[in-house]
Specification:
323 residues, alpha/beta, six-stranded parallel β-sheet, four-stranded antiparallel β-sheet, 36% helix
Length: 323
Protein backbone atom coordinates (compact mmCIF):
# COMPACT_ATOMS: atom_id res chain seq x y z
CA UNK A 1 0.00 0.00 0.00
CA UNK A 2 1.86 3.03 -1.32
CA UNK A 3 0.10 5.50 1.00
CA UNK A 4 1.95 4.00 4.00
CA UNK A 5 5.28 5.15 2.61
CA UNK A 6 4.63 8.66 1.35
CA UNK A 7 2.25 11.20 -0.10
CA UNK A 8 0.33 9.49 -2.88
CA UNK A 9 -0.26 12.58 -5.01
CA UNK A 10 3.51 13.02 -5.37
CA UNK A 11 3.34 10.17 -7.89
CA UNK A 12 0.92 11.97 -10.22
CA UNK A 13 2.45 12.64 -13.67
CA UNK A 14 2.59 16.10 -15.20
CA UNK A 15 0.31 14.92 -17.99
CA UNK A 16 -2.78 14.93 -15.76
CA UNK A 17 -2.67 18.74 -15.66
CA UNK A 18 -3.19 18.80 -19.42
CA UNK A 19 -6.11 16.43 -18.96
CA UNK A 20 -7.69 18.86 -16.49
CA UNK A 21 -7.43 21.63 -19.09
CA UNK A 22 -9.13 19.36 -21.64
CA UNK A 23 -11.96 18.50 -19.22
CA UNK A 24 -12.62 22.16 -18.47
CA UNK A 25 -12.58 23.16 -22.12
CA UNK A 26 -14.88 20.24 -22.99
CA UNK A 27 -17.41 21.50 -20.43
CA UNK A 28 -17.24 25.10 -21.66
CA UNK A 29 -16.22 25.09 -25.33
CA UNK A 30 -17.97 28.37 -26.12
CA UNK A 31 -20.03 30.95 -24.18
CA UNK A 32 -20.73 30.43 -20.49
CA UNK A 33 -24.25 31.80 -20.31
CA UNK A 34 -24.78 30.82 -16.68
CA UNK A 35 -21.54 32.57 -15.79
CA UNK A 36 -22.85 35.72 -17.45
CA UNK A 37 -25.94 35.53 -15.22
CA UNK A 38 -24.08 35.21 -11.90
CA UNK A 39 -21.08 37.49 -12.54
CA UNK A 40 -17.95 37.85 -10.45
CA UNK A 41 -19.37 38.52 -6.98
CA UNK A 42 -17.36 36.83 -4.21
CA UNK A 43 -19.19 33.87 -2.73
CA UNK A 44 -18.61 30.89 -0.46
CA UNK A 45 -19.71 27.33 -1.27
CA UNK A 46 -19.58 24.09 0.70
CA UNK A 47 -18.55 20.76 -0.78
CA UNK A 48 -20.69 18.03 0.76
CA UNK A 49 -20.22 14.26 0.65
CA UNK A 50 -23.77 13.00 0.83
CA UNK A 51 -24.26 9.46 -0.52
CA UNK A 52 -26.89 7.84 1.70
CA UNK A 53 -24.84 4.95 3.18
CA UNK A 54 -21.21 5.13 4.32
CA UNK A 55 -18.44 5.06 5.18
CA UNK A 56 -16.75 6.29 2.02
CA UNK A 57 -13.17 7.11 1.05
CA UNK A 58 -12.65 10.69 -0.11
CA UNK A 59 -10.09 10.80 -2.89
CA UNK A 60 -9.38 13.24 -5.66
CA UNK A 61 -8.62 16.13 -3.32
CA UNK A 62 -5.41 17.06 -5.12
CA UNK A 63 -6.95 16.71 -8.59
CA UNK A 64 -10.04 18.71 -7.60
CA UNK A 65 -7.84 21.54 -6.37
CA UNK A 66 -6.05 21.53 -9.74
CA UNK A 67 -9.41 21.72 -11.48
CA UNK A 68 -10.33 24.80 -9.48
CA UNK A 69 -6.92 26.42 -9.92
CA UNK A 70 -5.87 25.08 -13.31
CA UNK A 71 -3.42 27.31 -15.10
CA UNK A 72 -3.60 27.14 -18.85
CA UNK A 73 0.02 28.27 -19.21
CA UNK A 74 2.49 30.91 -18.11
CA UNK A 75 1.44 33.47 -20.74
CA UNK A 76 -2.16 32.46 -21.22
CA UNK A 77 -5.11 33.36 -19.07
CA UNK A 78 -5.40 31.70 -15.67
CA UNK A 79 -8.39 29.61 -14.74
CA UNK A 80 -9.86 30.37 -11.33
CA UNK A 81 -6.75 32.17 -10.11
CA UNK A 82 -8.58 33.97 -7.29
CA UNK A 83 -10.45 30.93 -5.99
CA UNK A 84 -9.44 29.32 -2.68
CA UNK A 85 -10.24 25.80 -1.45
CA UNK A 86 -10.06 24.88 2.23
CA UNK A 87 -10.19 21.12 2.72
CA UNK A 88 -11.57 19.71 5.97
CA UNK A 89 -10.29 16.19 5.38
CA UNK A 90 -7.20 14.47 4.00
CA UNK A 91 -6.74 12.50 0.81
CA UNK A 92 -7.90 8.93 1.44
CA UNK A 93 -9.73 9.73 4.67
CA UNK A 94 -13.04 7.95 5.26
CA UNK A 95 -16.25 9.77 6.08
CA UNK A 96 -19.91 9.15 6.86
CA UNK A 97 -22.54 11.30 5.12
CA UNK A 98 -23.44 14.07 5.21
CA UNK A 99 -19.87 15.40 5.49
CA UNK A 100 -18.70 18.98 4.94
CA UNK A 101 -15.56 18.08 2.99
CA UNK A 102 -14.31 21.48 1.82
CA UNK A 103 -15.10 25.18 1.59
CA UNK A 104 -14.60 27.01 -1.69
CA UNK A 105 -14.35 30.81 -1.85
CA UNK A 106 -14.01 33.16 -4.78
CA UNK A 107 -15.85 34.77 -7.71
CA UNK A 108 -19.03 32.76 -8.15
CA UNK A 109 -18.69 32.50 -11.94
CA UNK A 110 -15.27 30.91 -11.59
CA UNK A 111 -16.44 28.51 -8.86
CA UNK A 112 -19.35 27.30 -10.97
CA UNK A 113 -17.20 26.86 -14.07
CA UNK A 114 -15.15 24.21 -12.26
CA UNK A 115 -17.99 22.77 -10.17
CA UNK A 116 -19.25 19.90 -12.32
CA UNK A 117 -15.83 18.74 -13.51
CA UNK A 118 -14.56 18.68 -9.92
CA UNK A 119 -17.65 16.86 -8.60
CA UNK A 120 -17.54 14.24 -11.34
CA UNK A 121 -13.85 13.56 -10.65
CA UNK A 122 -14.38 13.28 -6.90
CA UNK A 123 -17.41 11.02 -7.36
CA UNK A 124 -15.65 8.59 -9.70
CA UNK A 125 -12.35 8.45 -7.84
CA UNK A 126 -13.97 8.14 -4.41
CA UNK A 127 -16.19 5.32 -5.68
CA UNK A 128 -13.16 3.37 -6.88
CA UNK A 129 -11.19 3.97 -3.67
CA UNK A 130 -14.19 2.98 -1.51
CA UNK A 131 -14.78 -0.27 -3.43
CA UNK A 132 -11.06 -1.07 -3.34
CA UNK A 133 -10.79 -0.43 0.39
CA UNK A 134 -13.86 -2.58 1.06
CA UNK A 135 -12.56 -5.58 -0.91
CA UNK A 136 -9.12 -5.27 0.66
CA UNK A 137 -10.74 -5.32 4.10
CA UNK A 138 -12.53 -8.57 3.20
CA UNK A 139 -9.27 -10.15 2.00
CA UNK A 140 -7.59 -9.27 5.29
CA UNK A 141 -10.43 -10.89 7.21
CA UNK A 142 -9.47 -14.22 5.61
CA UNK A 143 -5.70 -13.84 5.92
CA UNK A 144 -3.36 -11.53 7.89
CA UNK A 145 -1.10 -11.45 4.83
CA UNK A 146 -3.41 -11.84 1.81
CA UNK A 147 -2.27 -11.80 -1.83
CA UNK A 148 -1.71 -8.41 -3.43
CA UNK A 149 -4.99 -6.94 -4.68
CA UNK A 150 -4.51 -5.33 -8.10
CA UNK A 151 -6.62 -3.55 -10.67
CA UNK A 152 -6.46 -4.07 -14.42
CA UNK A 153 -6.02 -2.08 -17.65
CA UNK A 154 -9.81 -1.96 -18.14
CA UNK A 155 -9.94 1.76 -17.46
CA UNK A 156 -11.87 4.66 -18.97
CA UNK A 157 -10.09 6.19 -22.01
CA UNK A 158 -8.81 9.64 -21.04
CA UNK A 159 -9.36 9.00 -17.34
CA UNK A 160 -6.82 6.26 -16.64
CA UNK A 161 -4.49 8.28 -14.42
CA UNK A 162 -7.22 9.35 -11.94
CA UNK A 163 -8.62 5.80 -11.85
CA UNK A 164 -5.21 4.24 -11.24
CA UNK A 165 -4.53 6.91 -8.63
CA UNK A 166 -7.82 6.01 -6.90
CA UNK A 167 -6.77 2.35 -6.79
CA UNK A 168 -3.49 3.31 -5.10
CA UNK A 169 -5.18 5.53 -2.51
CA UNK A 170 -7.70 2.76 -1.83
CA UNK A 171 -4.84 0.37 -1.04
CA UNK A 172 -4.56 -1.73 -4.20
CA UNK A 173 -1.73 -2.27 -6.63
CA UNK A 174 -2.37 -0.38 -9.87
CA UNK A 175 -1.05 -3.25 -12.06
CA UNK A 176 0.45 -2.20 -15.40
CA UNK A 177 -0.54 1.29 -16.52
CA UNK A 178 -0.30 0.76 -20.26
CA UNK A 179 1.14 -1.42 -23.00
CA UNK A 180 4.62 -0.02 -22.33
CA UNK A 181 4.66 -0.83 -18.59
CA UNK A 182 4.85 -4.63 -18.79
CA UNK A 183 4.50 -7.21 -21.53
CA UNK A 184 1.33 -9.21 -21.00
CA UNK A 185 0.86 -12.03 -23.48
CA UNK A 186 -2.85 -12.77 -23.60
CA UNK A 187 -4.66 -15.53 -25.48
CA UNK A 188 -4.76 -13.49 -28.70
CA UNK A 189 -0.99 -12.96 -28.60
CA UNK A 190 -0.40 -16.69 -28.11
CA UNK A 191 -2.83 -17.67 -30.88
CA UNK A 192 -1.19 -15.14 -33.21
CA UNK A 193 2.09 -16.97 -32.56
CA UNK A 194 0.58 -20.29 -33.57
CA UNK A 195 -0.14 -21.29 -29.99
CA UNK A 196 3.57 -21.46 -29.17
CA UNK A 197 3.93 -19.96 -25.69
CA UNK A 198 7.70 -20.52 -25.51
CA UNK A 199 8.24 -18.69 -28.79
CA UNK A 200 6.04 -15.78 -27.66
CA UNK A 201 7.89 -15.45 -24.35
CA UNK A 202 11.33 -15.57 -25.97
CA UNK A 203 10.30 -12.89 -28.46
CA UNK A 204 8.85 -10.72 -25.69
CA UNK A 205 12.02 -11.05 -23.59
CA UNK A 206 14.13 -10.02 -26.56
CA UNK A 207 11.96 -6.96 -27.18
CA UNK A 208 11.58 -5.81 -23.58
CA UNK A 209 15.11 -6.53 -22.35
CA UNK A 210 16.05 -7.05 -18.73
CA UNK A 211 13.97 -4.18 -17.35
CA UNK A 212 10.51 -5.26 -18.56
CA UNK A 213 8.65 -8.16 -16.95
CA UNK A 214 6.75 -10.67 -19.05
CA UNK A 215 3.39 -12.06 -17.94
CA UNK A 216 1.47 -14.84 -19.68
CA UNK A 217 -2.28 -15.36 -19.44
CA UNK A 218 -2.87 -19.09 -19.05
CA UNK A 219 -6.12 -20.98 -19.63
CA UNK A 220 -4.82 -24.24 -18.15
CA UNK A 221 -2.16 -25.60 -15.82
CA UNK A 222 -0.33 -27.05 -18.81
CA UNK A 223 -0.06 -23.60 -20.36
CA UNK A 224 1.28 -22.24 -17.06
CA UNK A 225 3.96 -24.94 -17.00
CA UNK A 226 5.01 -24.04 -20.54
CA UNK A 227 5.11 -20.32 -19.68
CA UNK A 228 7.19 -20.86 -16.53
CA UNK A 229 9.67 -23.07 -18.35
CA UNK A 230 9.96 -20.41 -21.07
CA UNK A 231 10.97 -17.82 -18.46
CA UNK A 232 7.75 -15.88 -17.78
CA UNK A 233 8.05 -13.64 -14.73
CA UNK A 234 4.33 -13.87 -13.95
CA UNK A 235 1.75 -16.48 -14.90
CA UNK A 236 -1.91 -15.48 -14.76
CA UNK A 237 -4.34 -18.29 -14.05
CA UNK A 238 -7.32 -16.89 -15.88
CA UNK A 239 -10.85 -17.81 -14.80
CA UNK A 240 -9.79 -20.84 -12.77
CA UNK A 241 -12.45 -19.85 -10.27
CA UNK A 242 -12.24 -19.92 -6.47
CA UNK A 243 -11.81 -23.10 -4.45
CA UNK A 244 -10.02 -26.41 -4.70
CA UNK A 245 -9.30 -26.38 -8.44
CA UNK A 246 -7.35 -23.17 -8.05
CA UNK A 247 -5.64 -24.31 -4.85
CA UNK A 248 -4.52 -27.61 -6.35
CA UNK A 249 -3.11 -25.97 -9.47
CA UNK A 250 -1.18 -23.39 -7.42
CA UNK A 251 0.27 -26.05 -5.11
CA UNK A 252 1.42 -28.18 -8.02
CA UNK A 253 3.04 -25.27 -9.84
CA UNK A 254 4.84 -23.90 -6.79
CA UNK A 255 5.90 -27.40 -5.72
CA UNK A 256 7.11 -28.38 -9.17
CA UNK A 257 9.20 -25.29 -9.80
CA UNK A 258 10.59 -24.70 -6.32
CA UNK A 259 8.13 -22.08 -5.14
CA UNK A 260 7.88 -23.72 -1.73
CA UNK A 261 4.19 -24.66 -1.76
CA UNK A 262 3.06 -28.09 -0.63
CA UNK A 263 2.66 -30.77 -3.26
CA UNK A 264 -0.65 -32.46 -3.96
CA UNK A 265 0.24 -35.32 -1.61
CA UNK A 266 0.57 -32.84 1.26
CA UNK A 267 4.37 -33.10 1.49
CA UNK A 268 6.74 -30.36 0.48
CA UNK A 269 8.27 -31.07 -2.88
CA UNK A 270 11.76 -29.89 -3.74
CA UNK A 271 12.15 -29.14 -7.41
CA UNK A 272 15.00 -30.61 -9.38
CA UNK A 273 17.75 -28.06 -9.94
CA UNK A 274 16.96 -27.66 -13.64
CA UNK A 275 13.25 -27.04 -12.85
CA UNK A 276 13.71 -24.25 -10.33
CA UNK A 277 12.21 -20.94 -11.44
CA UNK A 278 11.45 -17.55 -9.98
CA UNK A 279 7.91 -16.49 -10.85
CA UNK A 280 4.72 -15.04 -9.46
CA UNK A 281 1.23 -16.49 -9.73
CA UNK A 282 -1.59 -14.09 -10.46
CA UNK A 283 -5.22 -15.18 -10.46
CA UNK A 284 -7.91 -13.24 -12.26
CA UNK A 285 -11.56 -13.55 -13.15
CA UNK A 286 -14.74 -13.92 -11.14
CA UNK A 287 -13.72 -12.29 -7.85
CA UNK A 288 -16.66 -10.90 -5.88
CA UNK A 289 -17.23 -9.82 -2.30
CA UNK A 290 -19.19 -13.03 -1.76
CA UNK A 291 -16.52 -15.52 -2.94
CA UNK A 292 -13.37 -13.70 -1.85
CA UNK A 293 -12.37 -16.45 0.60
CA UNK A 294 -11.95 -18.92 -2.29
CA UNK A 295 -9.21 -16.78 -3.81
CA UNK A 296 -7.13 -16.48 -0.64
CA UNK A 297 -5.00 -19.52 -1.46
CA UNK A 298 -1.47 -20.20 -0.22
CA UNK A 299 0.93 -19.63 -3.09
CA UNK A 300 -1.18 -17.03 -4.89
CA UNK A 301 0.84 -13.82 -5.10
CA UNK A 302 -1.59 -11.45 -6.84
CA UNK A 303 -5.36 -11.26 -7.26
CA UNK A 304 -6.34 -8.91 -10.08
CA UNK A 305 -9.87 -7.72 -10.76
CA UNK A 306 -11.59 -4.99 -12.73
CA UNK A 307 -14.52 -5.05 -10.28
CA UNK A 308 -12.82 -2.45 -8.08
CA UNK A 309 -12.72 0.19 -10.82
CA UNK A 310 -15.10 -0.80 -13.61
CA UNK A 311 -18.79 -0.21 -13.02
CA UNK A 312 -18.38 0.82 -9.37
CA UNK A 313 -20.98 2.98 -7.68
CA UNK A 314 -19.98 6.62 -7.49
CA UNK A 315 -19.92 8.60 -4.26
CA UNK A 316 -22.35 11.51 -4.37
CA UNK A 317 -20.87 14.98 -3.81
CA UNK A 318 -22.54 18.35 -4.21
CA UNK A 319 -21.43 21.98 -4.01
CA UNK A 320 -23.86 24.38 -2.34
CA UNK A 321 -23.48 28.16 -2.31
CA UNK A 322 -23.95 29.62 1.15
CA UNK A 323 -26.92 31.98 1.12
Amino acid sequence: MAAKFGTTNHSLPLSYKRKVTDWLEEDCPSFDYGGFVVGEEAKEARLLGKSPVGPFVCIGVHIAVKILFQRAGQRRRLYFQSTSVEWHMREGETFDPVKHCATVRGPIRQILQGERVALNTLARCSGIATKTSSLLHLLRQHSPAPPILAGTRKTTPGFRVPEKYALAVGGADTHRHDLSSMIMLKDNHIWACGGNIARAVRTAKAAGGFSIKVEVECQSEAEAVEAIRAGADVVMLDNFGPGEELGSAVRRLKGRFGGGAAGVDGERKVAEEEEKREFLIEVSGGLTEENVSGFVVEGVDVISTSSIHQGVKHVDFSLKVVH
